Amino acid sequence: MTTNKNDANRTDESSSPDTSNELDSSQVKSGEGYRSPSSDDGTKQDKKSSDEEDKGEDEEGEKRKGPGKKPLIILGVVVIIMVIVALVWWFMTKDQINTDDAFTEGDAVTIAPKISGYVTNLAVKDNQLVKKGQLLVQIDPRDATAQRDQAQAQLGVAVSQLHQAQVQYDLSKVQYPAQLAQAQAQQARAEANLLNATADFRRQRGVDPRATSQQNIDTASAQLRSAKADLENAKAQVQVAAQVELQIRQAETNVEARQQQVEQAKAQLETANLNLSYADVRAPYDGYVTMRNVQLGTLVQAGSSLFSIVSPNIWIAANFKESQLERMRPGNKVVIKIDAYPDIELHGHVDSVQQGTGSRFSAFPAENATGNYVKIVQRVPVKIVIDSGLDPKQPLPLGLSVDPTVTVE
Fold it and tell me: Which parts of this chain are annotated as the region Disordered (predicted)?
């Protein structure tokens, strides 16, 4: 409708251009405020156009203002949501302590032979699961067998000598008292012979020289001296035989010495049997064979490393900052994430806290007594035991990086 009116006005104006010009010139000349009907219509037309323009400008201004407020509203909503999320996250994690300085740990024992020899049987492969008592390596047993046979022969000799000493001891308990009795009897006979010889000598000296001869006197004198010598000899034999208890004790001591030799021979035989058994190297417990450095036919020395056995009993060694230990206690629940297996979530608990920082038990502890001191946050190892979530068919190698989160009270 507005467009039609404008067109009509333009038509009227174009149809009377001279009149308008005349009125304008006369109006200017006379200085009066006379207005023709056509000029009134034009004025109304101008006002209407200006109103429409103002209305359009207002609409455009509103359009300009509208997009300016909407981003602010969106930004405010986003900030509020972020604050809410941050508060929820803080509330949910305020009792949780996390560290990425954590690794899997377990028992790993080095397998070494106790005897030297050539490897005649290699019964395991790399990373193989073995059971306790399973044969791992067999070393040539011939040297150990020869040593066992030699020790067994020495034991037989020692046992034979013991039996001989025992017989000698039993014989001494009978023989030495009999020898003492015999010596005492000989002493008694010697004393009797001495008495007879003394009596004969005195009788020969006491008779009339005409009734005896010098030869008889000399014979009696000789018999007297012989009887005295026999008595002294008998007394000496009695003194020797009188040591019967000492002689028996000596025989008994010999038996004890032979018994010690037998025990020594038995120990040597047992050692030889042990060395023979050491030819078969067996697994000390269930685990996985790792770090194998032995081949079939290798000459191994006693104590040299063959490989390691890693136990499937795995735990977590987490190094927490000293400032994180205030509320941590044994028994706190732990959720464990594994870098190698992102989809696996393990559950466990805090087993114990090491009584010392990692730097305190390092090979070269820090020396802070001299020089400028720079305070560094210390870390304390914490042992975490895995309770659930670990697949027995998917064991965790030692040294894997894990991310434990401890829930404290």
Answer: 1-67
The structure tokens listed for 132 are 């306790």
Which phi and psi angles does 71 have, rounded to 5°? Answer: -60, -35
> Phi-psi region for residue 122, left (φ > 0), alpha (ψ -120 to 50) or beta?
beta
Instruction: Mean pLDDT check: name the lowest of 46-55, 167-176, 341-350, 390-399.
Output: 46-55
Instruction: Give the number of other CB atoms < 10 A from CB of residue 144.
Output: 21
Question: Where along the chain do its domains lie?
Answer: 2-91, 102-140+287-407, 142-276
pLDDT tens digits along 69-128: 778 888 888 888 999 888 887 776 678 899 999 999 999 999 999 999 999 999 999 999
Average pLDDT over residues 397-401: 93
Q: How far apart are the first and last CA of the chain?
A: 79
> Cα separation of 355 and 266, whole Å?
48
Backbone angles phi and psi of 254, in degrees to 5: -65, -40
CATH of domain 142-276: 1.10.287
- The letter for the amino acid at 220 is A
Instruction: Please state the rounded mean pLDDT for residues 52-79.
Output: 66
Q: For position 300, what pLDDT does the model report?
A: 94
146 pLDDT above the threshold of 90: yes
* Whether the domain at 102-140+287-407 and the domain at 142-276 fall into the same CATH topology: no
Neighbour order of strands in the sheet with 299-300? 280-282, 135-139, 117-122, 299-300
User: Do 136 and 294 meet the contact criterion of CB atoms below 8 Å apart?
Assistant: no
pLDDT in tens, 188-216: 777 777 777 777 667 666 665 665 666 76
